[in-house]
Write a structure and sequence with these properties.
Structural class: alpha/beta
CATH superfamily of the largest domain: Enolase-like C-terminal domain
Radius of gyration: 21 Å
Oligomer: single chain
CATH architecture of the largest domain: Alpha-Beta Barrel
Strand content: 15-25%
Length: 400
């Protein structure tokens, strides 16, 4: 069997309104959200699909540039092809999330072909399943959505904490969901907190019994994360912006986190995800793949990985996502008692609906400027768009 073509399918996510009015869901992400799918075709008629993230419009060019390395190759040799692709990019410098995103989608599609050729789901090829369903957590910033997730069987709620601190809202959610539902806080910027502010906030969060405190400081500075790690007792999580085992290595080897969060669309591929989990396992670090901006194909891939590694926590899931998510692939995953069952069809177990993808051509992949509403930045400073900002008026924002 030989690879004959590599095709990409790029689409804009949103900004179609949620006509059903489901909790006001609108995942337009200020116009920046794109999904990029890869399809690899062979001379025997088998095809494999994958998904890339990490600036999808740019990643599309990377995939197209790498396609000539793939044509004529036997897709069964997944690891050999991955290494050839990785080496092909090294002349451009260290592999960032664009390169890792391209590697991810291509490698995912190769595993899909291999599973279909052998008539087995990918998790079976990875050593078999440790578990047959994967727990998921959802996002909520108000009481209504939190209760809706709990009604679906969710056992963990994560609330956003971007920009200006709002500990009152976190405290409200803890009161609403009660002690039997886990609560996590996602503090990622911009604007990012300084280490000292993250420590002050982390100490306040300790009383709320969090499952984890995510991305409290800028990801470029691991020494800042180490300062927070040494000063607070709340579990820390990070890693979604980093690709490959080389990018995530210091988070794990320095024991900077309790939960590692590689993005399933830009971590480097299914094999890289499993290697990351293996690196984390002896450190007692749990795997909770990031899925906040990803489409549905990467979610399938995450399930195959998480079925086969021992140290999983939960999979992030956008339960109330843009409705188009449920129209561009088949089948559609459904949460059952707070979990997703692992796919049982050969390969990844998902196929693209190309005519639906074609309805949403990409127009842009860059976020709008933030609104000067005092949420992401201190009022009057949004147009500065600084990467990191000291939290002002701490006394009235921190729970006392």
């Amino acid at each position: 069997m030989k690879i004959t073509s590599v095709d990409t399918y790029l689409m804009q996510v949103g900004p179609r309104p949620d006509s059903s009015g489901v909790l006001g869901a609108d995942a337009g992400f200020r116009g920046s959200r794109n999904w990029l799918f890869v399809e690899i075709t062979t001379d025997e008629g088998l095809t494999g699909v994958g998904e890339c993230s990490g600036w999808p419009r740019v990643v599309q060019t990377a995939v197209q540039d790498l396609a000539h390395v793939l044509i004529g190759q036997d897709p069964a040799h997944v690891d050999r092809i991955w290494n050839q692709l990785y080496r092909a990019m090294l002349g451009h410098g260290l592999t960032g999330t664009v390169g890792a995103g391209a590697l991810t989608g291509i490698e995912m599609a190769l595993w899909d072909i291999k599973g279909k050729a052998l008539g087995a789901p990918v998790w079976q090829l990875l050593g078999g399943a440790i578990r047959d369903r994967i727990p998921v957590y959802g996002h909520a910033s108000d009481e209504t959505r939190a209760k809706a997730l709990i009604d679906l069987g969710y056992k963990t709620i994560k609330t956003p904490f971007t920009g200006i601190v709002d500990l009152d809202r976190v405290g409200m959610l803890r009161d609403v969901i009660g002690p039997d539902i886990d609560l996590a806080v996602d503090a990622h910027g911009p604007s990012w907190m300084t280490a000292q502010d993250a420590i002050l906030v982390g100490r306040e969060l300790e009383q709320l019994d969090l499952l984890f405190f995510e991305d409290p400081v800028p990801p470029e500075n691991l020494d800042m994360l180490a300062r927070v790690r040494d000063a607070v007792s709340v579990p820390l999580a990070a890693g979604e912006r980093v690709g490959t085992i080389y990018g995530l290595r210091p988070y794990i080897e320095r024991d900077l986190v309790d939960v590692i969060q590689p993005d399933t669309g830009r971590a480097g591929g299914i094999t890289q995800m499993r290697k990351i989990a293996a690196m984390a396992e002896p450190h007692g670090i749990m795997l909770a793949p990031h899925s906040g901006s990803l489409g549905p194909v990467a979610e399938f891939a995450a399930l195959h990985v998480m079925a086969t590694v021992p140290n999983i926590l939960q999979l992030e899931r956008m339960e109330f996502d843009w409705p188009g998510r449920y129209e561009v692939v088949t089948p559609v995953l459904q949460v059952e008692d707070g979990c997703l069952p692992i796919p049982t069809a050969p390969g990844l177990g998902v196929e693209l609906i190309k005519e639906e993808i074609a309805k949403y051509p990409s127009s842009r992949n860059i976020s709008d400027a933030p609104v000067d509403d005092g949420h992401a930045y201190t009022l009057g400073t949004a147009d500065e768009a600084v990467h990191m900002q000291t939290r002002m008026s701490r006394a009235r924002r921190l729970r006392r």
